[in-house]
Write a structure and sequence with these properties.
Bound molecules: adenosine-5'-triphosphate, magnesium ion
Largest sheet: 2 strands, antiparallel
CATH class: Mainly Alpha
Order of helices and strands: HHEEHHHHH
Strand order of the largest sheet: 1-2
Distance between the termini: 39 Å
CATH superfamily: Fido-like domain
Structural class: mainly alpha
Strand content: under 5%
Number of domains: 1
Shape: globular
CATH topology: Fic-like fold
Number of strands: 2
């Protein structure tokens, strides 16, 4: 990672904008978001096609989703942050603890065989687990940007592995989604996400 990106979140953006500095030198917010949307769409196809029995939903997998989706536009793609970050009143995992906290979360996920055995269990059980780990990764907020989208992609690949369609968030307002994220980060309460996931989980 280039050192200029190391110490704070704001240095990834073009001054005074919400546009991250990018390899294509795009400065237009609409254009960059459209490009991100296209890259995510392609990535969903790629990662879905690559799923097989040997796929392991570990830390490297999470990083590789970020890196391979956005590496052609962002230098910091796939790299964990080492600075502190907050949104609104929520403070995410401290920068100096991102690596160790991530290790802990993924050790726990490993104990659950990376949620690879939920194809024949109840949807309720699966949604509970997914919400728990989604909440953990939300609070970790390991990347400078694009955490929401990559975290959703990560769990979408896990549900696809287990024979489900990608989680349907289309009926969830962004206000409600954020309120669930706030409950996660500030109160370690994943029940809001559990309900969202349960409603959005459908067998393929
Ligand atoms: N006030 C908040 N408190 C806690 N978590 C929050 C808050 N606002 C946003 N989040 C979380 O941070 C994520 C946004 O992070 P980031 O901007 O890195 O990713 P993104 O891909 O641009 O997000 P998204 O597409 O979900 O808006 C949200 O999806 C949510 O999980
Ligand atoms: Mg964002």
């Amino acid at each position: 990672m280039a050192s200029k990106y190391k110490n704070e979140a704001s240095s990834i953006y073009i001054d005074g904008t919400d546009v991250p500095k990018n390899k294509f030198n795009l400065t237009n917010s609409i254009q960059i978001h459209e490009l991100e949307r296209e890259l995510i769409k392609e990535a969903y196809e790629t990662f879905y096609d690559e799923l097989d029995e040997d796929t392991v939903f570990d830390e490297n997998y999470l990083k590789s989703l970020h890196k391979r989706t956005f590496g052609e536009i962002y230098e910091w793609a796939g790299v964990y942050r080492d600075f502190n970050m907050s949104k609104g009143e929520s403070r995410f995992c401290q920068g100096s603890f991102v690596i160790s906290s991530s290790k802990k979360i993924f050790e726990e996920l490993k104990k659950d065989n990376y949620l690879k055995d939920y194809g024949n269990k109840s949807k309720e059980e699966f949604a509970k687990k997914l919400a728990y780990f989604k909440c953990e990764i939300n609070a970790l907020h390991p990347f400078c940007e694009l955490n929401g989208r990559i975290t959703r992609m990560f769990f979408d690949m896990i549900v696809a592995f287990n024979g489900y369609k990608f989680i349907d968030y289309s009926t969830v307002t962004s206000k409600h989604y954020i309120s669930c994220a706030i409950e996660c980060v500030q109160f370690a309460d994943e029940s809001g996400f559990e309900e969202i996931i349960l409603n959005g989980l459908k067998k393929r």
